Amino acid sequence: MDSQLKKILLTDLKLPEAAIEAHANFEEAGMDSLAIVELSLLLSERLGVNATEDELLDAKTIGGIETLVAERRGMSCQHSTPSGGRQA
Prior knowledge:
Layout: H1 3-12, H2 26-29, H3 33-47, H4 53-59, H5 62-80
Helix pairs in contact: 1-3, 4-5
């Protein structure tokens, strides 16, 4: 798991480390609707990942959130890569 995401889950959301398993759903991990809202804000502030509460809920598990974050971070990197100064 991404260390920054894990830090957010453990430190900011105060989830128990044993609950942070890829297959764990939000209830199993100890996350309620307020935690989802807070996670959305923290992902934006700390990681530059924009994910709505609905998108996070659609992820369904901790592993789903990890995949969503990885995909969004990958997209951010791809969009910020210069195209060699040439315009299409």
